[in-house]
Amino acid sequence: MAHQLVDKWVEALVAARATSARCGPPTDRPSTRDEAYQIQAGVARRVGPVGGFKTARKGDAPPIMAPIFAAGIVPTGAQVDVSDMLGIELEIGFEIVEDCPANLGSLPVSELGKLLLPVAVIELVDTRVQGPFAGDEIVKLTDNQINAGLVVGAAATDWSGSDFGKVNARLQAGEDIILDAQASVPGGSALETFASFARQIGMHCGGLKRGQIVITGSLHPLVYYPKGTLVEGWIDGIGAVSVTLGVSRYQAK
């Protein structure tokens, strides 16, 4: 039964991505993280390649993880597809700039800086699911934690390898100032978030590879903005990132 549920969700999510229309989900929803990760992996085999991952720590629970497909990763200044509204989050990301050693998951945080380069990113957020399950936390995880893409901005030019716990940051969408203050990094440590993720991921969705970007959680609450909005972000010590929310992503119902 569990195998059938996984297959049905994989088919539904692959179809949603292919047709740019939100899917009416199967009758049953996944109920565990293991099922969610099986579905993520099944979709990745059909839709990939994977260009990065999103992760976040909440309390003592294992960090969540979700692939970000390479096709949805764009450089700063890009215009991205959107039908009506799209979620945005300013985050600290890490680009993997060296080949990952076999013992990546056991490296101390102090050693990770040799493999990584901090980058300012804007995560784009949207669901591919419609109906009563769309707001369910496990369903969100199943749907790649509702990742809809990633905008990659400036990389730190003189990073010493030090951690990020609190950062001065700014995010503006149109005329609205969403963030202009010192912000706490989710979990209190961007490098520890990466390290926790590296200990967990194994070969999920192909594992971690040079050139991928791992994002570590939003510096502010998730907000949604309509097409036509210019979004500009900046993180002290890293740099700037911007995106214009553009044209139609989803077909009219």
UniProtKB/TrEMBL annotation:
GO CC field: cytoplasm
Record protein name field: 2-keto-4-pentenoate hydratase
GO molecular function, one term: 2-oxopent-4-enoate hydratase activity
Stored PANTHER family: 2-KETO-4-PENTENOATE HYDRATASE, ACID HYDRATASE
Source organism (scientific name): Boseongicola aestuarii
Alphabetical list of InterPro entries matching this protein: Fumarylacetoacetase_C_sf (IPR036663), Hydratase-Decarb/MhpD_sf (IPR050772)
Chain coiled-coil ranges: none
